[in-house]
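Mods, move this if it's the wrong board.
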Amino acid sequence: MNTGIGEGWTAERCRDFLFRPPQFRPDGLFFAVRDGADGEAIAGTACAWRASADESRNGIIHMVCVRPEDRGHRLGYWLTLAALRYFRDHGFERATLSTDDYRLSAIRAYLDLGFEPMMTDASHPARWDAVFDALGERPG
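Not the wrong board. C-alpha cells:
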C-alpha cells in the first residue's frame, strides 16, 4: 500500500482500516501473487468493499494497488475484474470507485471494464478532458 496508496501503511493500520470494519468480507479481498528470485510476493491487491455491513446493492472497488515493479501487466485490471465478479456473484447491482487524475493506467483499466466518469463537481468536466487528452482518446 505504501507504493501506491499513500504512506505509513503498517500491518496494524491495514487491520484497523480494512480488516476490522464490519463491512469487510475476507472472500472479497483479492491478491495477485508472483514468483521471483526473492520468493513468492504479493504483486497487487483489490477489495470488494461496501459502504456498510448490510449493503447488498452497491459495491465499491477499494484499495486497488500494484507494486511498481509489477506494473505494466494489467494486474490492476484483473484484480478489479475479480472484485466486480465478486459483486455480481453476490447479487450486487452496481459498483463504483474513485481514483486520482494522475493514475492514467488505472483509469484506462477502469474505462476498459465499463466504468464511466461521474461529473459531481464543477471541476470534473475540465479534469476529465485533461485525462482523456493524456490517454489520447475520448469515449463514445
